[in-house]
Amino acid sequence: MADSPLSDSPYEILGVSADADAAALRLAYRRALRNAHPDTGGDSAAFHAVQRAWELVGTPEARAAFDRGTVGATPSPTREAWAPAAPRRPRDSRPLARSYGHPGGLTRQLYLDRIREWAGRGVTLADPYDPALVRSAPRDIRHILADALAEESTARALSTLGIAYTVWHDVATDAAGPGLPPKLDHLVLGPTGLIAIQSEDWGAPVALKRGELVGEALAGERPFRALAARARAIGRAARVKPTALVIVVPDDHAPEPLELGGSIRGAVVSLVRSSRLASAVREGIPGSAHLGGTEVMEVRSRLQAVVRFA
């Protein structure tokens, strides 16, 4: 199972509550295995997920380890993956992209505020990233943490673009309008254009349809319209125009490594898998305008004069 706050827990996959007794758990496993088996019309991915879920909670020892946030005698990587990462030295001496702002910072703060509010007034949370706590939180709170992790992952990928690129993270966009998020996740400037990027993890696949994202997990959201509004607000202040609008999602949530969806006000729309993002930016989003060296410097100066961080 994917290491995401939005991934279903073994109990959710088996269709039982976390406090189900051993008999109910075994009955649920048999039922889920029968329903998911490919020979009875089920799905192979769901079948393997049921088997993996049983490995994690099917015996008293494994279940106790899972509920403690450990697997066997070793600490679970889940907590380490969700908590803020410690700074790391670059592995080589290649120049990195110029980066400004704190990727995922505002989203992490929102998660901490919401998880503490949900826990209740006066309750002290020893570890807001404790796996058991995160799993028990409502989906909207887990979604916030998943988004923060997605933003940080995108920032790591963008840092490898090289010195020809400048990246701004968590750019404030108060002028984007009521009801919209108060920031643009990432803004990338380089020879392949000025690209506005939103990092997302909805916990389920999405697809492009007539220039907008669709998917059961979106619940009526129109992500590209919102991204265009935020990018337009920044562009208007700096008197520049974005050349591409990109939403990046986990690899298994997009049908293609890179999919185009037309354009919005001249900016090419694209849904990109996380692993494809850095190469897509270096190569240029197909159909989007490239910028000359002088033009890049001029746009950078204009943006530096107006960019504020959330």
UniProtKB/TrEMBL annotation:
<feature type="region of interest" description="Disordered">
    <location>
        <begin position="68"/>
        <end position="101"/>
    </location>
</feature>
<protein>
    <recommendedName>
        <fullName>J domain-containing protein</fullName>
    </recommendedName>
</protein>
<dbReference type="InterPro" id="IPR001623">
    <property type="entry name" value="DnaJ_domain"/>
</dbReference>
<feature type="compositionally biased region" description="Low complexity">
    <location>
        <begin position="77"/>
        <end position="86"/>
    </location>
</feature>
<feature type="domain" description="J">
    <location>
        <begin position="9"/>
        <end position="70"/>
    </location>
</feature>
<dbReference type="InterPro" id="IPR036869">
    <property type="entry name" value="J_dom_sf"/>
</dbReference>
<dbReference type="InterPro" id="IPR052276">
    <property type="entry name" value="Diphthamide-biosynth_chaperone"/>
</dbReference>
<dbReference type="Pfam" id="PF00226">
    <property type="entry name" value="DnaJ"/>
</dbReference>
